[in-house]
Structures are given as structure tokens and as C-alpha cells.
Fold this sequence. Notes:
Oligomer: single chain
Order of helices and strands: EEEHEEEEEEEEEEHHH
Strand content: 25-35%
Largest sheet: 7 strands, antiparallel
CATH class of the largest domain: Mainly Beta
Shape: rod-shaped
CATH topology of the largest domain: Thrombin, subunit H
Number of strands: 13
Number of domains: 2
Structural class: alpha+beta
Number of helices: 4
Helix content: 10-25%
Radius of gyration: 46 Å
Strand order of the largest sheet: 5-4-1-2-3-7-6
Amino acid sequence: MKSSVVNIESVSNNAFGTGFVIHSDTTGIFVLTCQHVLDDVKTPVVENVLAKVIAKGNFIDMAVLYVPNLHLEAMPLQTSSCDQLDVDVIGFSAFNKTLTQKKHINATLYEEAIELHSKKEKAYCSIHKIKAQDGFNFDRGNSGSPVICKHTSHVIAMISNKEGSDIAYAIDIEHLKRIWKKVPQQLFQDPEKNIPKPLKQVSTQQENTETLKARVLNAKFSFSKKKSIIIAIVLLSLGSYFLYSHYQKEHNKTQAPSKLNNKPIEKPKPPIPLEPKE
């Protein structure tokens, strides 16, 4: 995203400002910046390429540049309000007398919009006051910086001018349509519109039928499960019974006396005396 924020420099002086890519094609890029930035730089240059002004506002401080032979990713735009007031700002400012720096600024939008009315024509535009958070500040050169919604990462406004170091004013991005008559409409596809539509809901009768089928299937499954458990318990009990009976039989065989042992013990018969021979 940072690469889509560019430094707008001058051929003839030391003036500079910020811009950001809003559209691109096969031949170049389209950059949005402030009209007063172009008033200062006179002849704008982006990435050492001479830029051409293709749209600008008289009362609205916006301008569109076309830069040929450059290919950078466009930043998505959002005309609907951001669901949170904390935003990101990326812009260029002076680092020293000869160098500029691109830096990130944490800021907070004021919820209430301000209407600016022209004294010369019947026109007005809405802007928002924006305050830099602790540790951050707005500097010269930040004009034209994108104001990015943290939730969607889409650009919702552009820094126009500042008041001191911690207060600035941002123009709502929707005013781009007013200064660029040939703006591609696909640039304003808000993220909410890209959310896929929910699936078509079934009728109540169909839902009830499906619910009833599910309950019947669950009941059958539950009954089958209980039946299987009961059969398993019975088989286990029978198996245990037969094993126990077999064990008892074998045990009795080893412990019971044999029939031979049950016979009464016969006393030995006395020897028959021999008769003497005559």
C-alpha cells in the first residue's frame, strides 16, 4: 500500500506534496492530489516522470494527474463512512533541506462533518477535522495524503491542509466524482457491496420437513445404538456364565476323589496254614 503513495515534485522549484494512485491502465497511472499542491509545484513530476493534469477542481481542493509509463497498484476507494474513527495517514514531508521522507501517521477523525461553502459560486463540499495521535504530527508536504479506514484498508478522504502540527482537514473521497467527470465508476465499489449474498432460505414447511426427517434419523440411530449395546451386554454375560460353568466343572474334577479311592479298604486276609504231609 505504501508504494501507491507518491511524492509530487516540481521541475522548477523546491515545492512538493503527496499523491496516491487511484487507477491504472496498460499505459500508466492516475494520481489524486490537492489542487493547491499543483499551484505550488507548477510543473508536476512523479517518480522522475512528467505528469499531466487531466482534472481539477476550482472550489474543491482536488486534482487528478496522469503519469505515463508507470505501473503501481491503485488504492481502493470507499465512499461510505468508516465504522471506526481511528484512521491511517501516509504522506511525504521534509526530512532535511535536500531530502523528503514518507511516513505513517496514526490519527483520529472527528465524527461531525464540516461544510465548506464557496463565496463565488453556489457550491459546497464536506470535510472532516482530523487529529494526529500522541507521538505523531502533520507536516508541510502532507497535503494530498490518503486517509485510510483501518477496518477495510480503503481510502475514505484526502488531507487538504493543516492547522498547527496536530490538526488537519480531510476532503471526503466522494467529491472526486465532481471534479473528474470521466472517473471510472468501478473505483467506487464499496467493500460492503462485495459481501456475498446469503443463500436463499428454504420455506418454513420445507424446513419443518427436513427437521422432522433429521429427528427420525437421529431416533433410529439412537435406538440402533442402544439395541447394539444391550446385545453386547447379553452376549458378554452369557460368555461369562459359560466360562464360569466350565471353570467350575474342571475345578470339581480336580478336587473330587476318584471312584477307586471311594472303595472301602479291605483288610488283608490271613495266610492259609499248610497241612503237614504224612
